[in-house]
Write a structure and sequence with these properties.
Oligomer: single chain
Mean pLDDT: 90
Largest sheet: 7 strands, mixed
Order of helices and strands: HHEHEHEHEHEHHHHEEHHEHHE
Helix content: 40-55%
Strand content: 5-15%
Number of helices: 14
Radius of gyration: 22 Å
């Protein structure tokens, strides 16, 4: 079984976060961006669609996009385009969508995204376009992302990219060998070349200069995260697309496995995406707890150390979770808003989302920012309340009465 095939055996906590976004954000994109185009046309593209469903029965990204389209079908004209290179996965995906497409207009395309990209862009002409790119490793070519973002079309375009931090970090030792004029294994050299194509050059290799070796996972992961941030800057400079990014971990104590990046030109896209990140974070908290229990029980059943979870674990209570954590998030956001006031005097929340959320990004969502603004206003510290589109209005310190 290849690593790609093994991926579809069961959905783990890190994938739950990603799929939490796909459940929540595409319907918002369709509602807002689709309103601005003729016939309210929207196209959802899954550039690396896979099988469509995990072997444990949970939906993959294609089915999640189908359900998102179904959610807005009464007021948006949505088409799904699903690209898959693996022949077995493509056959399974085609059958699955035929059975569970639920009336969604959809097209399955067999082959590599680069090969089918002209068809994708042609099919989406004149429509608001949301593209999900979840390549296995670094299969995406740098120019392909540019072609999508800079398509010759005035309709709104957004791309959600899965950036594999673990995949980049694993190449750290091989890059160190190259820099030391040694010869890494041929397979590693191929991966380095693919990553050069993905990132648009070998500029990223300099960030791995301090990686000591294969066991230096912390330094390699830190370097990969730096590469991810620099990559976003390069895309912004070349295309004008801003972005919101979220590192995702299998467990709070683990290193980030990947980064989710939304490329968008619209402040409202960033605002709504950050909101979806917080809600997906609640899904993730439930999932990693369940993962921990499952692994412990498997170890116990196979004769390993006695499990600490012999009793059924308590059901994750989302309401209780919000009641316990919400006040902490609001307090953190209040402090962040005050720091921004000190730094800028006057600012818009929509222009400083990463700094407003701070460490609460991926946990808090819009109501928590609204509550923080409301508290500062009631305390006489700022001149704006939290009504309407408050995130688009300039905030300043309140003048003394």
């Amino acid at each position: 079984m290849t690593a790609n095939e093994d991926f579809f055996r069961e959905k783990r906590a890190a994938a739950v976060f990603k799929h939490g976004i796909l459940k929540r954000y595409p319907p918002v994109f369709a509602a807002k961006a689709g309103f601005r185009v003729k016939d309210h046309r929207v196209v959802f593209v899954d550039g690396y669609a896979g099988r469509g469903r995990y072997e444990d029965g949970s939906p993959g990204s294609p089915l999640l996009l189908v359900r998102a389209a179904e959610f807005v079908k009464d007021y948006r004209n949505v088409t799904g385009l699903f690209v898959e290179k693996n022949p077995r996965h493509y056959a399974h995906l085609t059958r699955l969508l035929a059975e569970e497409g639920r009336g969604l207009k959809h097209v399955t395309l067999h082959g590599d995204l680069g090969e089918r990209l002209p068809e994708v862009l042609s099919e989406s002409r004149g429509a608001a376009l949301f593209v999900f790119l979840d390549p296995f490793g670094t299969a995406l070519h740098h120019d392909q992302l540019g072609q999508i973002l800079l398509r010759d079309d005035p309709a709104p375009t957004e791309v959600l990219l899965h950036f594999s931090v673990s995949g980049v970090a694993r190449l750290g030792p091989a890059v160190r060998q190259v820099r030391d004029h040694e010869s890494p294994p041929p397979e590693d050299m191929k991966k380095i070349e693919r990553l050069n194509r993905f990132l648009g050059g070998d500029w990223w290799q300099q960030h791995f200069a301090r990686v000591a070796g294969a066991d230096d996972l912390g330094s390699a992961t830190s370097a990969a995260l730096t590469v991810s941030d620099r990559y976003r800057e390069i895309i912004r400079n070349k295309t004008g697309f801003d972005s919101v990014s979220m590192p995702v971990r299998p467990h709070p104590d683990n290193q980030p496995r990947y980064v989710l990046v939304l490329f968008t030109r619209h402040v409202e896209g960033k605002w709504q995406f950050a909101d979806a990140l917080g809600k997906a974070g609640m899904d993730w908290h439930e999932a990693w707890r369940n993962d921990r229990v499952t692994r412990s029980r498997r170890k116990h059943e196979t004769g390993g150390q006695a499990s600490l979870f012999d009793e059924d674990p308590p059901v994750f209570d989302s309401k209780r979770y919000q009641e316990e954590e919400g006040p902490k998030w609001v307090a953190e956001i209040e402090k962040n808003l005050q720091r921004l006031l000190d730094a800028h005097g006057t600012f818009r929340i929509a222009d400083h989302l990463a700094d407003v959320y701070g460490t609460t990004l991926g946990s808090a969502w819009i109501p928590h920012i609204r509550e923080a603004v409301k508290r500062l206003n009631r305390a006489g510290m700022i001149d704006k309340d939290s009504k309407g589109k408050f995130h688009l209005e300039a905030i300043s310190r309140a003048r003394p009465s």
